[in-house]
Amino acid sequence: MIKKLKTLAARGAVGAAVGAASVAHAQVAAAAGPDFTQLTGAISMDSTATAVLAVAAMVITVVLAVAGAKVVIRMVKGV
């Protein structure tokens, strides 16, 4: 039992050390992140937002048409 606890404690210590090292690495990477302004400056978000909203409107239209057709079919069947 004691041997298992020692093994578990050793694994926990190794896990904690690896976790601390990865957090330290992530902090360094976040502090010196890359600069994407040249790539993102050329994108117009106005046209992109319009396109996304148009696709969403088409999907909603199809969903409503299917729901309406189901209602009409139920009325015709008399259920």
Overview of this structure, please?
The chain is mostly helical and 79 residues long. It folds into 2 domains: 1-33; 43-79. It has helices at 2-31, 37-40, 45-77. The longest helix has 33 residues, at 45-77. It starts with a helix and ends with a helix. The model has no long low-confidence stretch (mean pLDDT 79).
Q: Please give the largest β-sheet.
A: none
**Radius of gyration over all CA atoms, rounded:** 29 Å
Oligomer: single chain
Please trace the helix and strand order, writing H or E for each element. HHH
Comma- or semicolon-separated keywords:
flat; mainly alpha; 79 residues
Give a brief outline of the structure.
This protein is an all-alpha fold.
Give the topology:
Layout: H1 2-31, H2 37-40, H3 45-77
